[in-house]
Amino acid sequence: MNYQFDWSVLWTGQSGQWLLAGLITTLALAACAWLLAAVLGVVSGALRTAPFVPLRLLATAYVEFFRNVPLLVWMFFWYFGVPPLLPRAAQDWIFAHGLEFWAAVCALGVYSGARFSEVLRSGIQSIPRTQVEASVASGLTVFQAYRYVILPIALRLIIPPATNESLNLLKNSSVALTISVAELTFQTRQIETYTAKAIEALTAGTLIYLVLCVSVASVMGWVERRTAIPGLITGGRRPRA
Amino acid sequence: MLDLGVIWRNLPFLLVQGFLGFGGFVGGTLRLAIPAILLGFILGVFVGIGRLAPQAWIRLPATVYVEFFRGVPLVMVIFWMWLVMPILLRTAIPEFGVALAAFVIFEAAYLGEIVRAGIQSVPRGQVEAATALGLGGAQTMRHVVLPQALRNMIPSLVTQFIVLFKDTSLASIIGFMDLTKAAQVVNNREIRPFELYLFIAGVYWVCTYSMSRYARRLESRLGPA
Question: Residue B104: exposed, middle, or buried by beta-carbon count in 10 A (0-12, 13-18, 19+)?
Fold first, then answer.
């Protein structure tokens, strides 16, 4: 192997600021998509266990369709396919405000929401049915039972698998480079293109992803211990990065 | 307005070249997915056994391998293979080889964790009984533990195979002519993104959904061993 290592490409020129910009974009993209995914996941996950058949079918259709198609296809779909269908004014607004970023947020958020939904559904199904029955018997409506009894327990139970899915979301945000969102992987490629130092650039990007994943996993481990329900076996188990 | 004719006109290219991989370009979703699943599973079995090895010099590298690849995006691994393999091997590697290597190495980390969990689900007494009958370590693994572990693993394995199948779409990033790339190529000529991407979403969906239905059937037929 006659490869000349030159690690200085990472701190000379614009590399540092590119990596930083990429990291910020990755975090912003992941955060926005996570919020969208959390809302979609909680609503559709709860509906999939709720006793209203039409809404349950709707939620099931959403989950089964979006979860089973590659994220990359969704990226292209939201980026190329959806904007031409919007009204003129909405098109102008979105082209002026970073179409790539918002298309990536939609693609990643809607896709991950379907995956979150499955996690929440299995969390709800692990709660004894009697909890709902007891809540309804004490005079709560089904909505109130979900809002005050089922969801607070389920959300605490699912922290380990939800952490896993959140890490998947973070890693999947790299697919946004295909629609030219300037996130971390995109910037890593840019450094490689400008300096022709593939190993150094990829090492930097890879290390940043590893550090991000390990930090998210340890923060969530702490959250999990803080919110563990006393008396359950699952309390206090650490999620895996 | 919707123009479904665009799909009909390009159906042979999308399905025969993009999905199956026969035609003038190196490509094919199935042509990549099937060897990737087989080889990834074989490597995954070794990784999973390695993580449970009593010898630290086997266990530690296997653990580092799994933790490393589970903390890195697949796109990053594909770029590593694409840009670094030619430097290391000093020769150009075709896209198929790059993509296959990236998927096998990446997915083996995830499959290894499933294999490990499957092996750990086999009761300890089975190993003790096999040892008492005079089987060696490798024989016990091969004839007693793995057959039972595989049975327990089937649902999670199929789920991971579905993930791998979907992930093969990322090979289009380095120019591999799979279903996604074929849709991009057709779209560049026809400019019908909504119809085309929705159509390939449907093709992917039919494959993955039938795989997951099949997994559910297997699961209920086999039950926990």
Answer: buried
